[in-house]
Amino acid sequence: MTFQTWAAFAAATAVLLVIPGPTILLVISYALGQGWRTAFPVALGVALGDFTAMTLSMLGVGALLATSASVFAALKWLGAAYLVWLGVKLFRAGGTLDARPRADAAPAWKMLGHAWLVTALNPKSLTFFVAFLPQFLDPKSGFWTQMLIFEATFIGLAFANAMGYALVASRARAVVRNPRAVGIFNKAGGTLLIGAGIATAAIRSGSN
Q1: DSSP-derived secondary structure for 29-73
Q2: What angle do CA 135, 91, 183 make, to 5 degrees?
Q3: Which portions of the chain are predicted below pLDDT 70?
């Protein structure tokens, strides 16, 4: 794996992680209800959930790669289209962020388990990884080495992202609840996702 490939993966991952989804909404809900002390257990649960979903997805991608090169190539095209679709959906989301404060005083282990379940068992996570990861895999390089590097990078960034969201939500609650701020954030994130999908498709065309 070249440094450029890893850097592109890390940059794309950072952009995708900051876009609010079910996992981030859960993080914000705990932080709004119970404050900054929820940050570590919830972020750890998110990281473990991403590890579970990403491992299952990588094993599936690896099986496709070993079975058929043409199917793997088609998956890359579908992944590019999927990124564009996610971007359009986020761009049109407006200023809504359905994250309500959780009033129940849950212990740390319960918050960790809840975050793990929401992240790992979300079908969208599995679909996302299957669509996203092939864009950066090199079929001619060692699959397991790439898998280890990509997983370590993604999980580290996912943990940091969840921690950041929890701390910001607990300290700057007005920003999280501001429809204008959320709307700008959604449009910026959607634009970046659409651009990532188009760039991926352009790379595919250039390589062919």
Answers
A1: HHHHHH-GGGHHHHHHHHHHHHHHHHHHHHHHHHHHHHH-HHHHH
A2: 130
A3: 62, 64-73, 75-76, 79, 90, 93-104, 123-125, 127, 172-179, 181-182, 184-186, 189, 196, 199-208
CB 204 within 8 A of CB 77: yes
Rounded CA-CA distance 75/137 in Å is 12
Consecutive H or E run containing 7: helix 3-17
pTM: 0.72
Rounded Cα distance between 81 and 194, Å, is 9
Question: Are the C-beta atoms of 29 and 99 separated by less than 8 Å?
Answer: yes
Name the helix (H) or strand (E) containing 111. helix 108-120
User: Which residue has tokens 């700057």?
Assistant: 172
